[in-house]
Amino acid sequence: MDLSLTRIDLLSVDTTKRHCLRVLPLGKKSAAKQMQKVVIGDQSGTVHCFGMKKGDVSSVFKGSMERAVSRIELGGTADERDKIFVAGGQTIKAWSRKGREFLKFNTNLSEDITAMHVLNDDIWTGGEFMYNHFRACKDLHSLLVNDRINDLTAVFRSTTSPEPSAVLGCQDRAVRVLDGSEITYEGAVDGPVLTLCPFSFAGAPAASALSRFNLLEPAPPAPVQQRGAGKAAAAELLYGTENGIFGQLLLDENQMRRGWEVGGRSVAALAASSRPGHARRGGVSALCSHDLTHDGVPDVIVGRDDGSIQVYSFDVSSEPKPCFESSLTGSVTACEAGLVNSANFDEIVVSTYSGQILSFSSEPSTQIDLTGDDGRGAAEDDDGEGEAAKAAGGLMGMLNRSRRAHETPAVATAAAAALSQAEKKGALQKRVKAVKKEIEALQARLEAERGKYASSVSSEMIAVQSDLKVRHTFALSEGEACYRLNIEISKPLEFVLLQSDVPMEVLDTVRAEAGETVEQAKVDDDSSAIVSRTKVGHSNLLLATYRVTDNATRLTIRLRTIEGRYGNLNAYIVPKGKPKTAQAATYQIRPLSLHRRLPALPESAAARPMSELRLTGTFSLAELHSWVCLALPEVPERVTADEMVFNFTSTFLGTLLLCSYRKGDATFRSDNLTTLTTLKEVVGREATQRKVQVKTSYDVNNDSITYMLKLIDPLLAYQNALSHRVKLIETLREVEQQEGTTDFLDPAYIEVLKHAPTIRAEFAQMPRQLDYLVGIVIDLYADKYKFKGVNVQQRLPQLDRLLRIDYSFEALAQFFAEV
Amino acid sequence: MLIPAFKLDMKSPILPGLAVVGKYDGLSPCLTCATTAGRVFIHSPHERDQFTNAEMQHLNINRKITAIAAGVIDARSTKDALLVGAQTTLFAYDIRNNADIFYKDVPDGVNAMKVGMINAHDQPLAIVGGNCSIQGFDHEGAEQFWTVTGDNVACLEFCDVDSDGRMEMLVGSEDFEIRIFQDEEVVSEVTETAAVVGLAALRGTRYGYALANGTIGVYDRNQRVWRVKSKHTVSAIAGFDLDGDGEPELISGWTQGRLEVRSDRTGEVIYKDNLNQAVAAIVKADYRKDGNQQVIVCGADGEVRAYLPADAELNGNLMDANVELDTLHTLTERRAELQAELKSVQDNMKAAASGQDEAGLIPTSTKVSTSLSVSRHDRCVYLKVQSSTPDARVRAVCIFADQIFEGESHVAHDAGAAQAISVQLAPAKDVSALLAVNALVGGRGSSAYHVFELSARLPKFAMYARAAPEDGPEAASFVKLKVGERMPQVKKWVQGAFAPDVVPDDAGPGFSGLHVVSLRTGRRLGVLFENGVVTVQTDEMELAGDVVQDLCAALQLSELESDADFPSEMAAFQEVLARVDELNAVRLRMTADMADSSNLIKQLVLRAEDARMLGEIAMMRKAYTQLHALNQELIGEYRKRTNNHDQLLEALKEVNHMIQKAARLRAGQAKGRIVASCRNAIKSNNIHALFKIIQSGKE
């Protein structure tokens, strides 16, 4: 962490969607001390372009959309991208940087636009499933994509490309590259793609000396490209996924290659995934690149939906390393870089879901001065040099830029020192006073309005309408084999009430994570909600409250479901304030809730012993597809082919489920028998409800059972060994202290000593973990004999005992073989 | 930015809560901590060991260390003594001369320890908190002070809570209580929401506390100033003026390694730091002998960090922040919040004005009411939350309250959403609680709800229903209190202390008491008043004590005598006393047996070794076999002894508890007197007198 940035609040607007904030490039006439403007669109449909003057917001213009703003892009020529294109609903409007509205284009699409890219006359848009390409507002190309489009951009894939190709980031973990209306190729990444952005000096941060340098056109080889790609012809993109991964993609004529990756499943993460306490970072909701560290290589700025902001820089290696981290109360919806508050210090401008616009400035915090006119002389000198750099362009400019970076702070500091500290403080204090006064006035007004409301509408302050906007996601977190429920609203939360008719486990946010690295723990530390459970009754198998103790607007809850049980989870979200309203949200818990889609089958798949479930009958493809949708997550709603093929893997055990079905015939294969029986139950129930005849036939592979037991064996053995290891800790500590060294100890013991806190934490979790595993084995046993028509109910207690008290793989295998 | 004044690595684990700084030569501070394997290490940077020149000295206690303290206990000396408490023993050491000062058996255990002055005694004492008891020992190990408390003592602190110029003793125990002692007598107590694990005197009448559920907070004269709950576990607290404003802040250390400094007045975090290990203890000392006090934070793996109070030029700003920017940030946030709220009210108003009443959540005239009722059948109290209009349905009720739930909240959810929900409440203890009720009320099938915020009070004795004939005869035991002219107040108290449907509506002159039955145990309780005498009929002395104390608080009685007759409890108590005697006898016998066995072992070892020297392998083998058998026997004996010990401890705890229960039947001086007299009776083994004291309150 070598970058130090200071937070400055700029403005607050209504709630914002992703990618609705842009920093405009610097104007043409490069006057001294020029600063950049910011444009932001919110869900009330307002588009606000503003700059900062002496720490105050000065509006350039305000425009409005009929619907909530869903995307803002900068368009124009490749050289000058300073036109503001705003999408809201199915309409696109465009403003010049001065605020002249010059385009209003109703696309007449059937879906709302969620993603957009603009260059010259071309507009590329993405709706939920529809991709469109307009030229001069005429429809040029379109395509229906298999799964939801989350982001879109367009790049030149090589020097010879006559036109840029659209690149789509989709929910089904695929990045699709298009030419015209055809998919040229697609590649898979390790999570649903949420964001795409060009990895370069361009994008918005035109502030640098390289601002005129167009990177959408093939770039002269930059150092990173040399290192990362080896090939200069490829276009470089950054991608970010819902499960917290971001990385580099290289697109050339014929293929997509993956470069470095951060937050992916390393070997260690895989090993840890089956154990408790392995936490994930939030989904990557905003990405941009800018050379904040002034080392000549652009840094990656990452904004996440858990409210964290990070900057990754490249030092000697080609893998990025974190150099700055901060967290906000709300999830990040956009981040950009530029010179907004000061002409000398670049900053990251961030918008959050709740509509906070703020910036992280590289200006040292003690010197931040909202009077806005410090360092004027320095700025002039500086810009002169900047001009030269611009003229030189390319690599030269970059070198200059980095050299300049070393000088700037020194000059600026000297200049700043000239201004007396007291004077600055005075200015700040004045501002504080002004805001205080404003607050007082607001409070008085609020009281008055409330009084009026109480007397004229409702003495109990009953709300007539609920204006609560809730952003929520409920997604499987693979590493932890549990669900993460993210709830975010536009005002501070008071509490969230959870109710469910399915049994599930609320994972305690902190105590379970003692084994994490300090850094991870710190991140989780920021959510300070207090969980409290109520004893459950027959119709409420989960009742819990999360009381939020700080002013957070966001809450993450981790829940572990039990496969085979399905139903609904209700969350009642209660914000602070009066009139007080609550918003309910319902989430479906699917029977095979812990499965995730696999883009491609692993190589080992063929070698695994598989059992098969075959369904035949009079059902249509759409019917069967809807049943599969009911049972499994991540299945697209639409049927896109005559034969549907999906592969899934269990996030907990790593077992596979292969589905392929067409009209009247479906085959499901899995190495976990329980998965198949669960699936059959769902289909059976649905089919009976609709009076559809379904014939089922099984092909049980007995090897698959042994295979499953072998998969579970290490987990069970680990849990069983825990109690033994816990007992060892104290003794080993004593030995360590007496002898002063542990070199002579068995490596296993040294391991115990090293991981003592983790072991203790896991031991505390053991009963729950063990219950979970025992449940899986017992289900498997029951399922095995269900097919043979043998009732084994009376043997289950014995199995339970075997698993908990005297577990050994041999005994278990033996038990499974007997009836 | 405040940075540690120094950091040290002790290279030894430090057990939670077991660290202290002592000046064993009267001058040089030495950090003394309990570490693993029953050892204590003493870090003396100013005075190295004369032989090894090492900074670290180790003391082998060979027992599980439960408490550690240092202080001057001999008023004639200036040197600190080191006091180490193990499960049932207390050692006092003179570190400088490497000599024992005293050794004391403390059967009640040593859970917490502190050196301090008790007002009635003009000498410093080692105050030891054990199982239900608090003892004070002088420098010869003689017991000078003894009193009882409600449960196992977890922490002790001295603070002048009532600003009378004399220090009171604060005792935090596992039964959620912080009791404030003036000599032997409890002058006041506060009930918290979980076991009290830490107490720290701040300035004047203020003191900080920490609870097992992750709460920390500050009291000023028994009024809570603020509290904060966290999901982490707090491991140590201390009061220290770190920002240099003359007011000590509350410093807390947490098991995940966080160190937090909060303002004693507002609870606002003014500084935080992170250790890479759990915080084990926080102590204060002038460790560099330069005249500046530091606060020293000890990590569980031996990392030690010390912080000096901040320089004046930091202006109380310890976190390297631009204060104005931060204030501006909070204010801006607040402004945005207010703006949003204002907008929401205005929007609502507009919506209401536009007459779209049916589009609203629920009729704006809706009222929601709560009512309490006792259910004998379900053995619980029902809180009924009722909406006034049929279109407004109660979907869920969420109640936040202290103490009566396992967590901090209780939820009732009705997927069908009727016009009313009855929430079952069954508090496990008799406590009065303020219920913050959030009722989610909405139309049928709507997904947005209006939240009604209501409050209701759960009376202290809510879990009692009116007695019926089938409940059997009235309780034979009772306690009688003379309250004289205050009958109307007593009646008022009854109305507030019991559920509303238990107390008759016309509590007029004819109202002479009530008979109720506990929903938890099914046992009877009678509260009767006649001619200025209140009689509490119950077989449970503890319950009687609760009733008496609650009555005293309501009537603001500072002095109260009473006559008690609890034949069944006294019979049980007699058995406990007999068991104590029996267990003691067994213990002595077993100790003697063990001495015999260990002699035998020595002989066998000698014999075996002799045989080995002489090459008589057969003989050697025989001796070792015997040795092995004897060893097994010893281990068996040891198990028996621990068993015996545990039982003895339990029985002794019951004895202390009985004294506490007897004391709670009185108030004021009578209360204090009982404790002292009972102790004397037990010491002189005068059971008859003990019973008499418990009954009449007099010797």
From TrEMBL, chain A:
Q: Where is this region: Disordered?
A: 364-388
Q: Which GO terms describe its biological process?
A: cilium assembly; intracellular protein localization
* Domain BBS7 platform residue range list: 604-699
Q: Where is the BBS7 helical hairpin domain?
A: 703-816
Keywords, A to Z?
A: Coiled coil
Q: Does the entry feature the keyword Coiled coil, yes or no?
A: yes
Q: What is this protein called?
A: Bardet-Biedl syndrome 7 protein homolog
Pfam families hit by this protein: BBS7_GAE, BBS7_hp, BBS7_pf, Beta-prop_BBS7, PolyA_pol_arg_C
Automatic annotation (TrEMBL), chain B:
Endpoints of the signal sequence: none
Ordered alphabetically, the record's keywords are:
Cell projection, Cilium, Coiled coil, Cytoplasm, Cytoskeleton
Ranges for domain BBS2 platform: 469-554
Residues in BBS2 GAE domain copies: 377-461
Q: Which residue intervals define the domain Ciliary BBSome complex subunit 2 N-terminal in the entry?
A: 21-116
- GO CC list: BBSome; ciliary basal body; membrane; motile cilium
Any one GO biological process: non-motile cilium assembly
Coiled-coil spans in chain:
328-355
Question: Per the database record, which ranges form the Ciliary BBSome complex subunit 2 middle region domain?
Answer: 156-262
Query: What residue stretches are annotated with the BBS2 hairpin domain?
Result: 567-664
Can you tell which superkingdom this protein's organism belongs to? Eukaryota
Instruction: Give the location in the cell.
Output: Cell projection, Cilium; Cytoplasm, Cytoskeleton
Provide the BBS2 C-terminal helix bundle domain boundaries.
669-695
Identification of the protein by name: Bardet-Biedl syndrome 2 protein homolog
